[in-house]
Amino acid sequence: MKDIFLKALVLLFVVGIFTACEEEELEYQPTTGAAAFVANQSGFFDLNNSTNEFSFDLVRTEGDAVNTIDIYKSLNSGAEVYHATVNAVPSTIQVNLNEALADIPNVTIDSLSPGDIFYFVMKLNTGNGTYTSQHRASSVVSCSSSVGGAYTSVARGTSTDSCCPGEFAGRTSVVNITADPDLPEGNYIIDDFSGSIYLEWYAVYGLTDVTDSPADVLDVCNTLTLSGTEPFGEWITGSGTRDANTGVIEYHWDNGWGDEGDVTLTPQ
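Given the sequence above, the corresponding structure tokens read:
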């Protein structure tokens, strides 16, 4: 019995040795190479303002001593193009849309779309060779948004309720759009999605003010999407555009009851 116990201890000890060796091999790290670390990425590439800057910091390098860092850029992970050389770290890199596009073939501002992404890759030149860092910077192509404000509205619509059959047109009112404080830039709240038609139709059911009909608005490069729940519990959706030169907004909306309407908003 003692022999069996002793053999078991020896077996456990041998297994422990091999396990420890395996763990050491998994933790092995190469002794050559280099990496650059990116932090503080800020801003985005603005289709409405090509001089708006995206910036990031090269905060430190690790590994082999780095002589210089060549920054390469690509659009949507396409072919890499040389952008600039950095001679010292830490360093802050600032790039506007015109600079990001420079030397990328067959791409112009007009051919970009919201959601396109520019990537910036760091290639570190050392005495032992050039290494591509796995830490990269990136920025999305989007648009600054300035939809908030007071508007004069002109609205039309049709209701499916027996209270108000037929088309109602020519309703005018004042509509306010404010930035949603809980969401990123481009998200807004409109206090009356119908341009006061809802109040005209449904005061008989208890509506007392135009602000009884708010909705959420998302602005992506002057394309607007409306969503939310109307006062009686059904969904409301809408879509439209904003004229970048005049600020005039036009959209169409529908709800779960089958009502629909068109609204034109002119900045006051």
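The chain has two domains: 34-142, 149-267. Try to locate this feature in the token string yourself.
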